[in-house]
Amino acid sequence: MEVILIFTLALLLAWPLGHYMTGVFSAGPHWSDRVFMPLENGIFKLLGVKATQGMNWKSYGIAFLLSNLVLGIIAYLTLLFQHVLPLNPNGIEGLSWDLALHTAVSFLTNTNQQHYSGQAQLSYLSQGFLIVTLQFVTPAMALAICVAVLRGILGGRNADDAAEGEERDLGNYYQDTVRAVLRLMLPLAAVVAVALSSQGVPASYSASPTVPVLEQGQSLSEQTIPLGPVSAMVAIKQLGTNGGGWFGPNSSNPQENPTPVSNAIQTIALVLVPMAVVFMAGGMVRRRGFTLLSLSVMGFLSLLFIALAVYSEQQPNAAFSGLAQQVGNMEGKEVRFGTDVSALWATFTTQTSNGSVNAMHDSLNPLAGLVTRSGMLINGIWGGIGCGFVNFLVYVWLAVFIAGLMIGRTPEFFGRKLEKREISWLGVLLVLPSAVILTFTAITVAFPSLTGNSNPGLHGIAQVFYEYTSAFANNGSGFEGLNDDSVWWNLTCVVVLILGRYLPLVIPLLIAGSLAKKRRVPTTAGTLPLFNPTFAVTLVTVILVVNFLSFLPSMVLGPIGEALELSQHTAVVAGQ
Amino acid sequence: MSIIQPGFSQNPAESSANLRPALGLALVMLAICGGIYSATVTGISGALFPQQANGSLISHNGKLVGSALVAQPFSAEHYFHGRPSSADNDPMSTGGSNLAPSNPELRQRVAQTSAELTARYQVAATELPVDLLASSGSGVDPHISPAAAMLQLQRVAAARGISPAQLEQLVQQHTELAQWGLFGQPRVNVLLLNLTLDAQHPLP
Which residues contact A182 (CB under 8 A, 6 or more apart)? Predict the structure, then answer.
């Protein structure tokens, strides 16, 4: 009930938001110009860019990579030297070189995978300035790429007067990024932050008070109640598909997520922009059917996974068999939320590449563990802001190609032919996840001294697989039991993070740029129709088959094996 | 570099390979998002919701006694107790057990808690409310389920020298139902309930 309510509310809010975003990123004037234009013009003057000047796919991609490199260097140096930089009243040390590198790259890639322990290792400058900024800017950058790719589908902004083969204008990278931050992320985050504070999320620069506990003679005689500008960060952590929380256990912590209403707000914030991108996409390519197709495919898979996860967590935890009431799995969950909305969050957070949690994923029942992993591997059901829809588009191109082969025609997408060059790059994207994730998992499992693992057996393999999947999908959630602050984990995750972020964004930009230049072929009776149920079913099948083929063996070794092991164990206990 | 294509972007000073916009973007965003946004939002929240924005602290007779959002450890007979904590109820180092259902360590821990609770309350293990055996995600979950409070009713009433019916009424007053009639599970805040007990029914 509550699950359906939250899902519906998110969709209803995403609709007008997507419409607004279409207006913001379209060439014509928009009512929001009057509010934001003066500030934006000032910023462009500072940056020395002419915002109206278009870029082709190469310039756009290079500007994207270059601004990431600069931001990454600033982040790395800030973390490395935070002990000599200002705003460090608690005298926190600088991070080690490998941990600083991992942390910088992790936040730069919109992943927010954390190998440091809570806020104890970050100064106010690192946490409040650097990380909050990265949480705003990185989703905006990916959204800019997504917008550029969508422009490419219609042949670029200069489609009407450019000749075949001529370079196409995909927009101005800096204008798109700045607009995404100022006109989208900032206003949303401000509203969400204040709403969260009304529910009890701290928003204060005061010192944290220390209070004696009521019943003395316990293992703990006083508590320090942590304060800080928490709500400001939690808002953007949710909205920007970021995920790195203020407190260690993220949004399961009652100070980070105090009430069921704050939980509903945060859950909606988590999927709001990724859902809105789907509505925006149809507007940008001026085809309502495109939104309908994407919405039905993503909605179907999303609801299917939610249903599985909710069912999974309503089942008892196997370790509690015979020892307590046989009701839902409450290990690692909070009483105020219960199992259903915890399962909902777990599904959304892994589908959207967010990675924040309101329950501990390590203690989920195996079926829900399978759902969370599948969401990350597909990485295109809603998906991270911008990158999720770009991933989805890759699945669409693949499905167009496969369907084209099946009916024996040259595959076309929006009147432009997918040919050898595009298909080769799609092939790279197709094998990339399994090549990267499975290689690193195999190496790590083969040398157990590298792993540092809290759980024995099949769950141990599942943990390693989860960590690399989470890094590649730029998700950031983790099975916390890993002893992951080591040079091995930090460096391998950096490699996986970078491959998982930049290739899946830049290669589709390349494909879109190359498609845009082609001659438009007229629609005929022989053209594959995209916006109908047949193609939607094909697309769902392609998404599922591609991922099952790539990852079934490792799933069997991890969560599936664990589920079998548990059912056997439960049978033994029941038989006693 | 030959990234400048004919047609547009002819001016090298405005090409994408220029470092100035990249660096400028980073610095402007640090100022706006890290500086202005955080400070403004924190200021507004604190002004509008001073109690909530400052940790939901509770005062009792002019003294701070805790936060309504943070569980405290209780074990005495005259207090209700909360859920098992993997973080020793310390709000500065919160966290869950991170134990998988297949982990023998979890089974062992639950078996021990189950044995303690069945001995203390004289009920069958399969009657025990699961939230009293499962550790929370945060380790400072301030709530228990109404069933978990009911289980402890007789014991606390006896220790306080009041009738169970009287105490049951108090527990019911402290049971929060779904927020706005829509969101969340029924729950009892342990610290607030115990504070009310101390105020209304001090120990004899």
Answer: A36, A39, A40, B32
Task: Report domain extents, chain B.
Answer: 13-50, 57-200
Domain regions of chain A by residue span:
52-172+287-575
Is this complex's ipTM strictly greater than 0.85? yes
Q: A296: which 2 tokens?
A: 């039905």
- Dmax (CA) for chain A in angstroms is 82
Residue A228, SS3?
coil
Query: Which residues numbered 106-125 in B keep a CB inside 8 Å of some CB on A?
Result: 106-107, 110-111, 113-114, 125
Contact A203 B7 (CB under 8 A): no
Name the burial class of residue B155, with classes exposed (0-12), middle (13-18) and buried (19+) by CB atoms within 10 angstroms of its CB.
Answer: middle
- In whole angstroms, give the CA distance from residue A459 to residue A84: 41
Cβ–Cβ pairs < 8 A, chains A and B: 421
Residues A457/A366, Cβ–Cβ less than 8 Å: no
Cα B36 to the chain's mean position, in Å?
Answer: 29
| Closest residue of chain A to B66, computed from CA coordinates | A211
Write the pLDDT tens digit of every residue in B30-60. 999 999 999 999 999 999 999 999 999 998 8
Between the alpha carbon of residue A395 and those of residues A135, A282, A351, A399, the distances in Å are: 27, 17, 15, 6
Quick check: A69 contacting B, CB < 8 Å? yes
* pLDDT one-digit tens code per residue, A231-255: 999 999 999 999 888 888 899 999 9
Evaluated on CA atoms A393, A394, A395, A400, the torsion sign reads positive
The tokens of A73 are what? 């260097």
